[in-house]
Automatic annotation (TrEMBL):
Protein's organism: Deminuibacter soli
InterPro entries in UniProt: GGT_bact, GGT_CS, GGT_lsub, GGT_peptidase, GGT_ssub_C, Ntn_hydrolases_N
GO molecular function, one term: glutathione hydrolase activity
Protein name: Glutathione hydrolase proenzyme
Gene for this chain: ggt
One GO term of the biological process aspect: glutathione catabolic process
Superkingdom: Bacteria
Protein family (similarity comment): Belongs to the gamma-glutamyltransferase family.
Reactions catalysed: an N-terminal (5-L-glutamyl)-[peptide] + an alpha-amino acid = 5-L-glutamyl amino acid + an N-terminal L-alpha-aminoacyl-[peptide]; an S-substituted glutathione + H2O = an S-substituted L-cysteinylglycine + L-glutamate; glutathione + H2O = L-cysteinylglycine + L-glutamate
Length: 573
């Protein structure tokens, strides 16, 4: 492996890294003085992610000769430091890519239930679901997959892993200036940090955080250094694994050193389908995202959305009804394909989806109580990054701890948050998880099983050439956000910035309501209410990172947008 070759080099690593250092005052990236860029127009390569420092690290790696895979790895590692609410090494994710030669790669590094997990582990003696345990503290964590995913991604990269992780090490060791949003979020979560930790952590200090404060994460730097020097084993075995297991024991968690040693990322076969002549490539189970996207886009495809118009009552209502029906299928039919036969082909077939829309009426709401999953005969906190390089490699990654700062427990001595991904299982049939999603047998807990996800990293091709690289966080609102982003670009002909920032709406079957963002027009809300819909306002739906690849006079133009709802940042050249 590349990192192996690197550490075998005769140079002392510090000399070599000093030469390669990107991060620091006066270097290419100054972590104490940086600005946020929301939209760029490039011609070669671009990175859009949830934090300016992470996008800058990814772009610097591209400039050093790395490809989109290298940039995606370096960006994720930087996010694990500068965006601790969601960037992670204690969580999991999905990487979807199209290589310059046209081949597709879907890497599943979703967390797994520990070997000691049981189906009813979150039920009390009377059989009541205890979501507080599936969402908070040690017992909420699945076995992390991110580090395995990064090394599996490195197979497609060009640069040594040590070079890709070094900026993250330096950001953790020497610190960086936190943003206003981060200061607010750390202050807001302070009580939970105190409640769910057994040892002092870098994220709690005596006075409130404010914008510009320096966050130093010495223990995380040491963990990242172990990963740099020992590869996968630097996380899944040895000191880091022992620290994780010890932390679990202090808080009644289940993950053991053996669970960690067993963890492996998996290659999956992407979902592919056609929408109005474009090829959409999505992530298959254990994500529900790719199938949901296929279902929703195919259900609306027979209707002239462009003619109805953006934010028209007609378009919004039609898309809502497609969303409702797709999510009913999610609850019944989707789970980890290694444990449950997901009837993917049927769920995405034209005939099935036509029949799903047979009871659609453009005049009124179909109550969710009248919608069940189709009969199939076939036997707040996550983060996204989109990357393209000059050779045309497209990489889209969504990665998550699940809730903000995951289970809020930092591994003592290792400096990183553990996920609370166990809550993405259906802990009891019909009991909503933290995103209101319900499920049953398909997504029940079993040892070693991956919990169902909504993450929807997505690629779009036009005439077999790169056209869109996109994805977003947002729990169950992820697939509907990507659905709307694609419709905004393809049907409503928006540029990247508008496609990302226009207000969104969301329906997920249960609860039976349309969630809308604040700026969603009042007139449309009123018309929908009159048709029988319940409308609820949500703070923000999605944080989409979008790269659109356009052609003008034979030249490529990258139209790149980082979502205006967060610190998200777009870089490129
Ligand atoms: O995998 C999932 O579907 C969830 N764990 C994602 C959580 C998420 O997007 C939170 N972000 N705001």
């Amino acid at each position: 492996m590349r990192y192996g070759l690197f550490i075998a080099s005769i140079f002392s690593s510090s000399v070599l890294f000093a030469q390669k250092s990107l991060v620091g005052p006066g270097k290419a990236i100054d972590p104490f003085h940086y600005t946020t860029v929301k939209t760029i127009s490039g011609s070669k390569a671009a990175v859009a992610s949830a934090h300016p420092l992470a996008s800058k690290v990814g772009t610097a790696i591209l400039q050093q000769g790395g490809n989109a895979f290298d940039a995606a790895i370096a960006t994720q590692l930087a996010l694990a430091v500068v965006y601790p609410a969601a960037g992670n090494i204690g969580g999991g994710g999905f990487m979807l890519a199209r290589r310059q030669n046209g081949t597709l790669v879907a890497l599943d590094y979703r967390e797994k239930a520990p070997a000691a997990a049981t189906r009813d582990m979150y039920l009390d003696a009377s059989g009541n679901a205890q979501t507080t345990l599936s969402q908070n503290g040690h017992r909420a964590s699945g076995v992390p997959g991110t580090v395995a995913g990064l090394f599996a991604t490195a197979k497609y990269g060009k640069l040594p892993f040590a070079q890709l992780i070094q900026p993250a090490i330096e950001l953790a060791l020497h610190g960086f200036a936190i943003t206003e949003r981060e200061a607010r979020s750390l202050n807001y979560t302070r009580d939970a940090f105190l409640q769910y930790n057994t040892q002092p952590i870098a994220f709690v200090k005596n006075t409130p955080w404010k914008a510009g404060d320096t966050l130093i994460q010495t223990e995380l730097a040491a963990t990242l250094t172990r990963i740099r020097d020992n590869g996968m084993k630097g996380f899944y075995e040895g000191t880091t694994a022992q620290l994780i297991a010890a932390e679990m024991q202090r808080g009644n968690g289940l993950i053991t050193t053996n669970d960690l040693k067993q963890y492996q990322a998996k290659e999956r076969t992407p979902v592919q389908f056609n929408y109005r002549g474009y090829t959409i490539i999505g992530f298959p189970p254990p994500s529900s995202g790719g199938i949901l996207l296929a279902q929703m886009l195919k259900m609306v495809a027979p209707y002239p959305l462009a003619q109805y118009g953006f934010q028209s009552v007609r378009a919004t209502q039609l898309m809502t009804e497609a969303e409702r029906r797709a999510y009913a299928d999610r609850a019944q039919h989707m789970g980890d394909p290694d444990y449950w036969k997901v009837p993917s082909n049927t769920l995405m077939s034209d005939a099935y989806l036509k029949q799903r829309m047979a009871d659609y009426s453009p005049d009124h709401a179909t109550p969710s109580s009248a919608i069940k999953a189709g009969l199939v005969k076939e036997s707040d906190e996550t983060t996204h990054l989109s990357v393209i390089d000059a050779a045309g490699n497209m990489v889209t990654v969504t990665t998550t701890l699940n809730g903000g700062y995951g289970c809020r427990t930092v591994v003592g001595g290792a400096g990183f948050f553990m996920n609370n991904e166990m809550d993405d299982f259906s802990i009891k049939p019909g009991v909503p998880n933290m995103y209101g999603a319900v499920g049953g047998e398909a997504n029940a807990i079993a040892p070693g099983k991956r919990m169902l996800s909504s993450m929807t990293p997505t690629l779009v091709l036009q005439n077999k050439q790169p056209f869109m690289v996109t994805g977003t966080p947002g729990g169950t609102t992820i697939p509907t956000s990507i659905f709307q982003t694609i419709v905004n670009v393809i049907d409503f002909k928006m540029n990247a910035t508008d496609a990302v920032n226009q207000p969104k709406f969301h329906h997920q079957w249960l609860p039976d309501e349309i969630d809308v963002e604040k700026a969603f027009p009042d007139s449309v809300r009123t018309s929908l209410t009159n048709m029988g819909y319940t409308i609820k306002e949500l703070d923000g739906i999605g944080r989409v990172e979008l790269i659109c690849i356009k052609h003008k006079n034979g030249k490529i133009i990258l139209d790149v947008a980082a979502d205006g709802r967060g610190d998200d940042d777009a870089e490129g050249f």
